[in-house]
């Protein structure tokens, strides 16, 4: 038996194993039974640590966040626009490393307070720039939800970088929709060029926040 399988079972070890397995089987295939098999334990052993799959997903999302911010220092000289750009670019880059990463992260509840330091710093920066606390929360939430929504759609087409799900051939789509020239041409924008389209959408959201609240 490998040293990993002999190591004591705890929440973080289970989450680490689940994140590795996620890239192989995706969210649908990620069952407590499959994780237990990978750890060489019986499935009931996992229920000592997680009452159900959602509790495990919460811990996985928390571990994703820990890894995302590890060693990353926030720059106090950031403008509010720069901070929102950096935070959401970082979130997208991190979640693209996991099959169905955005679906795991979305709607999950952090199991600790690891996120509090970054959240406090970002809200402080925004309120110092002239946002009320309510406006700062709305600004951070709008960009965060844009990023997660974009990623869920992106990973529906490209589960992992370099992969493309069957049925998303842009040229074939255009041929099938040749009677609708604008809709056919739009496929190149909808299902390709994700990096540039993410940046454009994020810029639109941030510009809208500045206009809505009258803050440069």
Secondary structure: elements and pairs:
Blueprint: H1 3-6, H2 11-29, H3 32-39, H4 53-69, H5 80-95, H6 101-105, H7 116-128, H8 133-157, H9 170-176, H10 181-190, H11 194-213
Helix pairs in contact: 2-3, 2-4, 4-5, 5-8, 5-11, 7-8, 8-11, 9-10
Describe this structure in words.
By secondary structure, this protein is mainly alpha-helical. The mean pLDDT is 92. The longest helix is centred in the last third of the chain and has 25 residues, at 133-157. The protein is flat, with a radius of gyration of 20 Å. 67% of the residues lie in helices and 0% in strands.
Q: What tags apply to this protein structure?
A:
0% strand, mainly alpha, 216 residues
Task: Write a brief structural summary.
The protein has helices at 3-6, 11-29, 32-39, 53-69, 80-95, 101-105, 116-128, 133-157, 170-176, 181-190, 194-213. By secondary structure, the chain is mainly α. The longest helix is centred in the last third of the chain and has 25 residues, at 133-157.
Distance between the termini: 60 Å
Poorly predicted tracts of residues: none
How large a portion of the residues is in β-strands, by DSSP E? under 5%
Supply Rg: 20 Å
Return the structural class.
mainly alpha
Provide the succession of SSEs: HHHHHHHHHHH
Shape, principal axes of CA atoms: flat
Total number of beta strands:
0
Helix content: 55-70%
- Overall pLDDT score: 92
Main sheet: strands, sense, barrel: none
This entry's quaternary arrangement is: single chain
Tally of DSSP helical segments: 11
